[in-house]
UniProtKB/TrEMBL annotation:
One of its GO terms (molecular function) is pyridoxal phosphate binding. It is an enzyme of class 2 (transferase). This is (S)-3-amino-2-methylpropionate transaminase. Gene3D superfamilies: Aspartate Aminotransferase, domain 1, Type I PLP-dependent aspartate aminotransferase-like (Major domain). It comes from Leucobacter chromiisoli. Its EC number is 2.6.1.19, 2.6.1.22. Its cofactor is pyridoxal 5'-phosphate.
Length: 448
């Protein structure tokens, strides 16, 4: 353990402050131990070891205060160690830590299910089932859709990311680092083109026609259990489909008795400026997968959807030892309440506006900024070679490296590795956000 003991949460000084180079000596020492003890496949983006975090900062083992523009991949939307979450977890951990809900149940799980049924899109009757991770939620959504339809085929999209388990690896598009050498993958997964306006130039209706024609010709409606798509693709590059694409898919799925699943694991819970990204386009999925932002950093995920589909699986068919852990449920209830009481959907829109405006200004003088896109506090910049749309992964990597060295935790993404993504906690201040963005601007200039 390190000798630094600090309490996290929003009362931490909200400042970027470097007292050593990044990573500092203590982080380097811990990194050496990590490399000797932890499997190499578990890589790290920025080797600073965290000792406390909150608001918009992370404190590392050397006492550096870094700006967090990643929220641990869109998880700590309410902020790290958010006071309401800390209180709820403390209370629950002192009551009981585990029973296994499918052995003897408890009310926290039921309350989370009730809450999710109430706040997700659509006013039809719903049921929820809780799990631990996003991948597990996706796996279960597919299980449920197959059981309900008695069909096998599942359609996924180019640039999709759905997780790292065997089924979800096969559903994920990108080979390195997610799939390479880890096969064989599960059968009956079919990939079709998505809507990527910056690169395909198609309208939503045109892109949907391409995808649906391919499904009809290559998969066959009679074989198809489900279509699953992220409303804004996350790891694939924060690709927001052209308007009308998602409604066209949904309409087709409904007409053909195919279960339409939205994977809102990354987009969910206020991140995009609405509680769910589906709401921006008025799309009502049959099933939804939820995780990341759901419980303030505790591991919890869910499938929520139409009662008749969710109830099709027999008792004992869904579950797991830890699924819907009581501490994670208590954290989820506090987290969801915090999104509401602190009006964090509005805050996400404000954060998005600041990021968009900032890069729109830079883009005027720098044609390597190919596109600025996203919604709310889920924004991205796609970098290209000057004068073309060729992906510029070298620049993107250089920006993330520079930002890390200057005390900004910045994530990249994209099938071509050329997208910088911004996922700040919604508890970040304007001042801190602008300081972080300026570091990114300096990084872009430095890489000229
Ligand atoms: C992160 C992610 C997953 C996988 O979630 P894990 O909790 O890492 O298993 C699935 N779908 C989407 C859209 C994601 O962003």
């Amino acid at each position: 353990m390190t000798d630094v003991t600090i309490t996290g949460g929003p009362s931490l000084p909200q400042e970027r402050k470097l007292v050593t180079s990044i990573p500092g000596p203590k982080s380097q020492e811990l990194l050496a131990r990590k490399n000797a003890a932890v499997a190499s496949g578990v890589g790290v983006a920025l080797p600073v070891f965290t000792v406390a975090a909150g608001g918009g900062v992370m404190i590392d083992a050397d006492g550096n205060s870094l700006i967090d523009l990643g929220s641990g991949i869109a998880v700590t939307g309410v902020g790290n160690s958010a006071p309401a979450v800390v209180d709820a977890v403390k209370k629950q951990v002192e009551q009981f830590t585990h029973t296994c809900f499918t052995v003897t149940p408890y009310d926290g799980y039921v309350e989370v299910a009730e809450k999710l049924n109430a706040i997700t899109p659509g006013d039809h009757e719903k049921r929820s089932a809780l799990f631990n991770t996003g991948a597990e939620a996706v796996e279960n959504a597919i299980k449920i859709a197959r059981h309900y339809t008695k069909k096998n085929a599942v359609v996924v999209f180019d640039h999709a990311y759905h997780g790292r388990t065997n089924l979800t690896m096969g559903m994920t598009a990108k080979n390195m680092p997610y799939k390479d050498g880890f096969g064989p993958f599960a059968p009956e997964i079919y990939r079709v083109p998505t809507s990527y306006p910056f690169r395909d130039g198609l309208s939503g209706a045109e892109a949907a026609k391409v995808a649906l024609t391919q499904i009809e010709k290559q998969v066959g409606v009679a074989n198809l259990a489900a279509i699953i798509i992220e409303p804004i693709q996350g790891e694939g590059g924060f690709i927001a489909p052209a308007e009308g694409f998602l409604p066209a898919l949904q309409e087709w799925a409904t007409r053909n008795g195919v279960v339409f699943i939205l994977d809102e694991v990354q987009t969910g819970f206020a991140r995009t400026g609405d509680l769910f990204a589906a709401n921006h386009e008025g799309v009502v999925p049959d099933l939804m997968t939820l995780a990341k932002g759901i419980a303030g950093g505790l591991p919890l995920s869910a499938v929520t959807g139409r009662a008749e589909i969710m109830d099709s699986a027999h008792a004992g068919g869904l579950g797991g030892t830890y699924t819907g852990n009581p501490i994670a449920c208590a954290a989820a209830l506090a987290t969801i309440e915090t999104y509401e009481t602190e009006n964090l959907t509005e805050r996400a829109r404000e954060i998005g506006a600041i990021i968009e405006e900032f890069f729109a200004e830079l883009q005027k003088d720098d044609d390597r900024i190919g596109e600025i896109r996203g919604r709310g506090a889920m924004m991205a910049v796609e970098f290209v070679e000057s004068g073309s749309k060729a992906p510029n992964a070298a620049l993107t990597g250089a920006i993330a490296k520079y930002a890390g060295e200057q005390g900004v935790v910045l994530l990249t993404c994209g099938t071509y590795g050329n997208v910088v993504r911004f996922l700040p906690p919604l508890s970040i201040s304007d001042e801190l956000l602008r300081d972080g963005l300026q570091v990114v601007a300096d990084a872009i200039t430095a890489a000229a």
